[in-house]
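SEVERITY: medium
COMPONENT: batch folding queue
REPORTER: lab tech (J.R.)

DESCRIPTION
The queue accepted two submissions in a row. Attaching both inputs and their returned structure tokens so the on-call engineer can compare them side by side.

ATTACHMENT 1
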Amino acid sequence: MHGDGHTAESSATAISIQERGLDQAILVPQERRTDWRNWSGSVQFSPARYSSPGSMEELKSVVRTTVASGQSLRVVGSGHSFVPLVETGGALLSLRNMSGVTAVDAGVAEVWAGTDLKTLGEQLSASGHGMLNLGDINKQSLAGAVGTGTHGTGIGLGSISTQVRAMTLVMPDGEAVECSPAQEADLFAAARVAMGSLGIMAKIKIDVVPAYRLELVKQTMDLDDCLDRAPVLAQSNRHFEFYWFPHTRKTVAKLMNQTEANVSNQGLTSAMEMALENGVFGLLSRLVRAKPARAPGVARLIGKLVGDKAPVMVADCHRAFSTERLVRFNEMEYELPAERGPEALRELVAYIEKNKVLVHFPVEYRYVKGDDIWLSPFYGRDSASISVHQYVGMEHDAYFRAAEAIFLNHGGRPHWGKMHNLGAGQLAGLYPRWDDFMALRQRTDPAGIFLNPLLKRYFGA
């Protein structure tokens, strides 16, 4: 759901990841077929048809044609989901040509759903506006970010989905439906996080605020100290998150707050992060993949390379959140009740240390405000978000399953765009509005036009 890779069906020469850039999913043209894979390479498939409409009428026509052909239809964004949310042997549709901000009025922006978050930030900034909050990757399409409950960090700030005020959905009959809290309220409550299973997001109205700047302060902390102080740091900063380096007791905390100060150190900090997080870290990751036993030692080395002091950075809001990610990985993320987060991470640390897990990627810990969206992982509760990662090409299943067991024991819910092993039976017990969502989905798309094998597993279809 997060993706935006495409090409015309042809026999053109395959385009490599290096030529397109690691931030892009790719479609590799072959004889009368189109191959697609996501950013990390964990998902690869060949849809029967590909289309990229450029208007609402073209989008409606594609839906009607697909339904008439008896094929299923999935919508792709930038390919930043780690699971096969868009995999299909039927029709694959990209919204990349339906992009851009069309209007901003009274604190609400109207945006084509195919707009990627980087473009959205730049266009909002040009009009003197900004998003309330974003995650640390800005390559996703807005539709993909909303549909999977993608988020940043901040105990007083919800996911991107909570910032949506209204949506225009194209339904299985090819007709457009407007939904909001005042119009088709149940559809609105469900469709904001539905992984494209209720309708195709065409236009989104989303909250914006006057443009602002953020001051970023990074500091290293002992793990136990960081976990003890985490609830207070979350409450006392607009944004708080930290990274723990496995096989060490070291964390790096990131604190961000609004400021009136002038932009400073933005380029310097970005250059330093690019060199360390992508150049050096990429080289070390390749060494670990060649010999996984190196992982603990490399993790400790990375912890040492991260200095105790970093320059304070002040950046415009649309640039402050995102970090360039060129080193590819696979990821699992769970959202836990906020008060259970520290204990869960301590258990994960103990598991990694006891079992000498061969991982060198940091564990990420964030906070997200609760919401009322039916299938949102944050439904009804403020949450601590814990993410585990493994370098591409390295074994991750045992590590992820162990982490998942810990997270589930603490009431965790999985991020819809990231790896997990749950099916309908387990998922139903995690979401109070699950049955309401299933009933609405059956009424909305009884033929399962918008389903694929993964969604059938999730929904028991």
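ATTACHMENT 2
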Amino acid sequence: MADKEALDRATGSTEVKQLDFRLGAFGAAVPLLFFVIWAITTSVLQLSSEIGLVLGAVIGLTLGLLLSKSKWEDYAQGMFDGLAQPIGVIAMVAWFYAGMFAQILQVGGLVEGLVWIGSVTGLTGGLFVALTFLLAATFSTAVGTGYGTTVAFCTLMYPAGIAVEADPVMLFAAILAGAVFGDNLAPVSDTTIVSATTQEADVPGVVRSRFKYAIGAAIPTVILFALFGGGENATADQAAIGAMMDQTNPSGLLMLIPFALVLILALSGQHLITSLTWGIILAIPLIWVLKLGTIGQIISFNPDSDNVVEGALIEGISGYVNMAILILLIVAAAHLLKLGGTMQVITKGLVKWIGKSVRKAELSMWGIVAMMNSAITINTAAEIAAAPFVKELGEKYRIHRYRRANMLDAVTSALGYIFPWGAPVLLGWTTIQTMKEKYEWLPVVSPTEVFPFVFQGWFLVIVMLIAALTGWGLRYEGKNGEEVKERPSE
């Protein structure tokens, strides 16, 4: 028996059930609490970055070690138990596949194809802004990356819109709003993947169940952009429009074929990795046969490069490496909350206030997610931090996993693109500043100007608040995990 225990300890297979901390439940919360404070501080100082957040998570976990009253080896084992949880690993691998697929679609010219649609319609002013929102929503739903959508559309659609008399603030807001839509709804979005996996739900079912919320927010968004998106820009001229047209190509729309395949497979119940794999397998020969790009753009080997391997496939993976590390560390910090009893203390306090009211339970979930996303600049990181609380409360009141995932993802996707200190807002602002070097007539919109007008984000937050208050769309967990309208008896 002693030999077996020694072997278990050496191989890390002994699972820690409980840890004691100085300062009790608060001490167990220090790793995650420090990370949140670090994220807020670096954001306010405009020093936020993914690798910087990784450092904040590491420091937080180290502080937790120093506060541990249990053996340090037990603390370390508890931390590694958290790192090994399937939630983080599943999300990490899914990101890699989603990133590769998104990069391949961009090599095939999907962005240019979507921009071509907007350029040839002849729409101006508010109608162009509304169209920009619809195209950005389509693109972000296709590739699952709101950040990538922000960069791509600020690079191409923003100058084009200014050239055809769109209001700069509304145009930037439309791009961010479109990114919100896809980040929330796309089966390959990182927030969709995290919201589903952390609540132990399947991605296709989650996407189907949240469609009504996304559309409910999108309809008034389109109307408002069409009505108020027009500007009086004197720089509109054929030369500027011609410069935009030089960067467009309708052939890129053929990349909607592999996107449609991924969407159909994912929504029909196929595993996300399977769906993405077939999308990649279809997209690569299409790009090669139709000469939309080169194999070298997809994968190439350069001995003179630090990475050696280059191209869309490696860029799709490398773009998520820091975030993959971060999700594992935050999941570990959340696991320490559970081992140290913090989760039980917080949940007990909330349950005392909630009583038997499911409405209060959902309002608590909404509030926790909103608070985390107000503090942490990278929405996926905020979602990961809030997920354990949503799961704990949701399971306590038998709220269905789809509903929990939707409450978690909708508020996360919305607020991540609204606040001036949010990473994607700053990313878009920086991109526009870069484009001004090419187009001197381009106005630069500051993050503080745009945030009230990201209508899809604000409406999505309001829609979920109304859903929590009224019970609209509420479903409970049946005996076999199915959705039921009436709460099962305890």
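NOTES FROM REPORTER
The first strand starts at residue 300 and ends at 301.
No errors were logged for either attachment.
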